[in-house]
Amino acid sequence: MDEIEKKPPMRRIATEEAFSIPEHYDAIRALAAAGSEEPDLVMWRHFLGNSRPAFVDNLMDVDRQRLRTMDELGVGMHLLSLTSPGVQMFEAGLAAEVAEAANDRLAEIKARHPDRYAGLASFAPQDPKRAAREMERAITKLGLNGFVLNSHTNGEYLDEPKFRPILEAAAGLDAAIYIHPRVPPKPMADLAVKYALESGHWGFQSDAALHVLRIMYSKAFDDFPNLKIVLGHMGEGLPYWMWRLDYWHKNGGRRPPLKKLPSDYIRENLMITTSGMDWAPTLKFGLDVLGPDNIMFAIDYPYQEARLSVEFMDSVDIPDDVREKIYHRNAERIFKIPSAPGIAATGAKENA
Amino acid sequence: MDEIEKKPPMRRIATEEAFSIPEHYDAIRALAAAGSEEPDLVMWRHFLGNSRPAFVDNLMDVDRQRLRTMDELGVGMHLLSLTSPGVQMFEAGLAAEVAEAANDRLAEIKARHPDRYAGLASFAPQDPKRAAREMERAITKLGLNGFVLNSHTNGEYLDEPKFRPILEAAAGLDAAIYIHPRVPPKPMADLAVKYALESGHWGFQSDAALHVLRIMYSKAFDDFPNLKIVLGHMGEGLPYWMWRLDYWHKNGGRRPPLKKLPSDYIRENLMITTSGMDWAPTLKFGLDVLGPDNIMFAIDYPYQEARLSVEFMDSVDIPDDVREKIYHRNAERIFKIPSAPGIAATGAKENA
User: Which chain B residues are closer than 8 Å to A287 by Cβ?
Assistant: First the structure.
């Protein structure tokens, strides 16, 4: 291993970076081969040929091309998460097994490259109690940094009472859940597939935003005030709707009462990332309505072009102390990542 | 009639103002009474009791309270449109009859108050050829100012080939179509009804944004370059997604080719209004990414509070020439409203 020790001018932690493991890839291929109608597989089928496509190699790799790309761009750390839709298309037993294998692998990767990787743990909502146990293991035993969930599971969202153990575990462990998008449930995706709009054009953000609103109106943020949800793509549009959400909340009448306004939960219980949105207007909008402590840098490697994201965040016209928060300080706080590279490896922490 | 002739400091034209006629209200009540499962009726049922609720009186009134409210706030003109979901829940024949009656009524209202009202014509997409004929009549015979469509019709969107006569008519008549939101098709609304999120919280904007993307990817803006679509609620979120839409368009591969980028169509073929979004951050964002010629003032009377909208637009920190464009100049251009009050009444136009 010849990891180049670059000294980037500012630490860069990218927080929505996809990886995969062979067990995961095999399970997805098996599902596709069995003729599953999961709309997410449309995208995978598009990629899956006879030979393993390059992007899957990029997902599996954490030792070669990924590190080279990171080094070239001065990206210090990837916060890795099992690529969407994770284990959520599989039957419960297989899903839990793949999630647990992915978490073990993440812990190995972190041990091998303590300065370069952190990890979000997967879990299988199909079996909520086993999920909660795995969430605890992932944080307390494996030392992972939070959780990833790829929006709905078989058309169900985290607001369902049966998923309460999952929210309870996340809050109890004080570990954030990154809700990564996936294609909406089939009845909704069907409205968009004609022009392939069911993913990044429309479906991803519409579904992920709905997910958070459902969690909000299930009173989960009232019951677990420290519950933190992370959304990519500059908040999946929710910041844009804060005023209107409050207005309808106050004037609608048919919705469950909440302790606070929707915009309060968006400011207090959500974090957003810049994944897939390397655009000054949305970043400045986010800073305007959420402030500098709620936004984190993300690339969405290998799906988006890493160079674009870094060049954007390096050059966008914001104060350097804000850039620093977005590039690493907020991620260090939310995901409990030691505040300087190298510290985790030696255990010689100065600041807990 | 004691119409007070206030001289507001700046002409204010509100462009998404709802009205109704008894035939429309009766048809909606009949549908509800027949046990229709249209998700839009959930909202109506909430309002409909044994006696006619006050908001329906406000919808029907154009001579009393509405004018008083306008006068109090210095709102010179309402651009009226048949309230959502218009005629789109009815069977084709009834739908066309109610639309035609509403258009006749609008022409009468305009004749009675030429300085105070303009109108968007309804049509029944259920019968596209009859719709196209009515669209022509509404503009050339009745002198109305554009069209209103309440998003999908029985789950179908304007991109469907059978609706081409409608897009062709709008483009041929050089008259904009205001796509007003309605509750999404039932399979999508079902994901949101648990917490009543199917309307202004989430469903309205998700569905209306999908509608425009479907129109875009049907190549309608390539085929009819002067086709203008108007969206309320600061563009139903689409301005927020411009960068990401372009990125996915260029990198996705599975979508139909288009002559331009999605952001080009959003800038060139869309107009957005401030309805239901009296919030400086979204207005400034819209000005930043679309410029001052693409945004129009709207209240959404009687559903939103008119005073809030006027106080917001009067006080928001933007240059007065931009405020003037938003308050009236853009609406005058897009909806062919004579540029000073009184001119239409006498016919003594100075500028065509």
Answer: none
Q: How many of the other CB atoms lie within 10 Å of CB of B130?
A: 19
Determine the pLDDT at residue B49.
Answer: 63
Q: Return phi, psi of residue A320, to 5°.
A: -65, -30
Are B121 and B106 in contact by the 8 Å Cβ rule? The answer is yes
Instruction: Please say whether the beta carbons of A233 and A207 come within 8 A.
Output: no
What ranges make up the beta strands (E) of A146-249? 147-149, 177-179, 229-231
Residue bearing tokens 């091998």:
A112
Whether the predicted pLDDT of A106 surpasses 60: yes
> Per-residue pLDDT averaged across A135-145, rounded?
98
Q: Nearest chain A residue to B249 by CA: give it.
A: A201
Cβ pair A109, A62 in contact under 8 A: yes
User: Positive or negative, the Cα torsion across B329, B330, B333, B335?
Assistant: negative
Identify all chain B residues contacting A242, using CB atoms and an 8 Å cutoff.
279
Examine the residue annotation and report whether B300 is marked as an active-site residue of this protein. Answer: yes
Residue in B188, B255, B285 nearest the CB of A195: B255
Going from the C-alpha of A143 to that of each of A100, A217, A337, B204, the distances in angstroms are 14, 31, 10, 42
* Amino acid type, B324: E
Pick the closest to residue B334 from B181, B120, B167 (CA basis). Answer: B120
- Cβ contact B238:A202 at 8 Å: no
Across the interface, whether the CB atoms of B197 and A217 are under 8 A apart is answered yes
Rounded to the nearest 10 degrees, the angle between the axes of helix A306-315 and helix A65-73 is: 20
Placement of tokens 């303009």 in the chain: B118
Q: What is the pLDDT of residue A152?
A: 98
Nearest to B196 among A195, A245, A252 (CB): A252
Candidates A44, A197, A316: best to mutate against B (most CBs of B within 10 A) is A197
List for chain B the helix, strand, coil content (%; round to 5): 50, 10, 40
What pLDDT digit, counting tens, does each position of B70-113 carry?
Answer: 999 999 999 999 999 999 999 999 999 999 999 999 999 999 99
CATH topology of domain A2-333: TIM Barrel (3.20.20)
Every domain of chain B and the residues it spans:
2-333
B332-352 pLDDT, tens digit per residue, is 999 999 997 544 433 333 333
pTM for this entry: 0.94
Q: Is ipTM beyond 0.90?
A: yes
Rounded Cα–Cα distance for residues B27 and B21 (Å)? 10
Tell me: the pLDDT tens digits for B263-309?
999 999 999 999 999 999 999 999 999 999 999 999 999 998 999 99
Contact residues, chain A, for B39 at CB < 8 Å? none
DSSP lists the bridge partners of residue A178 as: A148, A230
Which pair of structure tokens corresponds to residue A67? 């590190």
As given in the structure block, the two tokens for residue A112 are 């091998």
Rounded to a whole number of angstroms, the distance from the CA of B253 to the nearest CA of chain A is 9
When pLDDT is averaged across residues A327-352 and rounded to a whole number, the result is 69
Residue A326's identity, in one-letter code, is I
Which tens digit of pLDDT belongs to each residue from B129-146? 999 999 999 999 999 999
Count of other CB atoms within 10 angstroms of residue B129 = 11
Shortest Cα–Cα distance, B267 to chain A (Å): 15
The whole-angstrom distance between A206's CA and the closest CA on chain B is 6
Question: What would the 3-class secondary structure string for B267-333 be?
Answer: HHHEEEECCCCCCHHHHHHHHHHHCCCCEECCCCCCCCCHHHHHHHHHHCCCCHHHHHHHHHHHHHH
Placement of tokens 């004579």 in the chain: B338
CB pairs under 8 A between A and B: 150
